[in-house]
Amino acid sequence: MTTSSTPGLTRFNTLPAEEAATVLHEVCASTAWGSSVLAHRPYEGPEALFSASDAAMAELTTEDLAEAMAGHPPIGRPKPGDPTSSREQRGMAGASEELKAEMLELNLAYQERFGHVFLICATGATGEQMRDAVKARIGNSPEREREIVRTELGKINRIRLTRLAEDA
Fold it and tell me: Which helix (H) or strand (E) element contains residue 76?
């Protein structure tokens, strides 16, 4: 079998398990997700890593999803000093003060309704698109919203895993 491994993936495959688990925790805060992805090393290529991530995401319980979401700051308030959340939320960086205030209100209303932060794959999205998404999703049932969150987490994980696999 041929491999199409990338420099970052090669490094990830050869890390001691504890270090690899730390790297995976930076991708997704779910311990169950990280343990599942870690258990399938080594990966022949990025697609195998993505498939393992997707399979692990599909198996997460409600509690596991809550743990994963706890690792994400609210939209419009990236973690200070965290280049990943700042990069992913770039669409809010240039937003007007009015839009930032509206997002804060919407975030709080969403969190009150669902008990967790509003989670969206913000990479490439404008502030207005994120605002429109929270407005559209706040009326969802908790079950429907949980499945949307699972999908959005999967997208975020793929973006982060792509960076992990490609970094030299």
Answer: none
Burial class of 109 by CB neighbour count within 10 A (0 to 12, 13 to 18, 19+): middle
Question: What's the rounded Cα separation, in Å, for the pair 119 and 128?
Answer: 15
pLDDT in tens, 125-168: 899 999 999 999 999 999 999 999 999 999 999 999 999 999 85
Q: How many CB atoms lie within 10 A of CB 56?
A: 24
Pair 33, 60: CB distance under 8 Å: yes
**Tens digit of each residue's pLDDT (9 = 90 or more) over 58-108:** 999 999 999 999 888 777 776 666 677 667 777 777 789 999 899 999 999
Q: pTM for the full model?
A: 0.88
| 53, 33 Cβ separation under 8 angstroms | yes
CA distance 130 to 10: 35
Three-class SS of 93-143: HCCCHHHHHHHHHHHHHHHHHHCCCCCCCCCCCCHHHHHHHHHHHCCCCHH
